[in-house]
């Protein structure tokens, strides 16, 4: 029987492959589309995705996490959740369909009506994906998710780019997202054995919802808070400015979701299996924070430093206004390992009540900061998100001082070595911006020097996280070779 570490490493390997593969291809697709399409077209899609994202929260209703967290979830649980989620998706689609003209009038964008109605169809495919993903995570079957996700992103990416070349404008983005959801649903049906059965238990739904409803409210608060900025910017400023804002977030978001998201996806089912062993949970949470911070800190700081030459080369000069947003979001996303590891630990311990309370407190503070920042302009709005995330990192860590005996101070002591050598690396790389040479040369020098500097400093100061990462990679290669 495989050891826990081998199972976790194998799952993490395939989750990283799935994330890096799909996000990497998606990243390339988005770059190509950004070069072909105008910023205002991305702004239009950003507004539409606010309403679709909020609806998706209701469709999942916290059931996805509840299915993973519940130790003995079975076919009755999965099938019951599937049918109730499908019913919710239908009701929400009707609501969005009827509301589309009013939303369009509010934003003075006639194109929003058809785009919103078409893109909202992804809610139905999202029901399948949500349950299938829960089944995959519950059974640590991330290799199957890798295959389906990669296939879907390639199919949708190719069709989206073709549509953009044909001059379909914003519809190229709609096609890309809709086809992606359809493709992954179809592929999962062939790859994963689970199918909904003709069984439904209101009692099981009630039990799962008793845990999941708190996560639903928490997720809803989170999505509304995040997307509130999009709604305000889209209404107050131009679609182009909203496009710059969202493209600035794209780079750091893709990278962090790829690395940190992979770790956390494997972390929840792992923690849930040890929810009765506080010491073991603490050890796993600590390892997650230390390892993900060691990888994410240098990438985010490095990305912020090379932002201008990177945007010029990759997106062209028409996207230069997105540079300040990119730099701001890099700082914000650098804190993600602390947020997610602490929150996953709370979820795994079955304390969704604490999770909800934290979300309410954070969102109240966030809205206050947002209200204060609005009069100072769009850049102040983005900076307000950084301030809120710094405060939120304290809030998220606070309960685990009691639950796991893992305080915020102890967490920062663990990640401080990575943080300090990152600052040194960032300072050295930043100096290259003052050299008067071609942008591609500056970017090349910065990447090479940054990577070498960080690795050398990690070895010189013998960072434990660096040694652990190397050892884990060796074990993973050994395990993959044997299997």
From TrEMBL:
Cellular component aspect of the GO annotation: plasma membrane
Transmembrane spans: 42-59, 80-103, 115-136, 145-165, 171-192, 284-307, 319-343, 364-395, 415-435, 442-461
UniProt keywords, alphabetically: Cell membrane, Membrane, Transmembrane, Transmembrane helix
Classification via InterPro entries: Poly_Biosynth_Transport (IPR050833)
Keyword Transmembrane helix: yes
Family: Belongs to the polysaccharide synthase family.
Name under which the protein is recorded: Lipopolysaccharide biosynthesis protein
Organism for this UniProt entry: Senegalia massiliensis
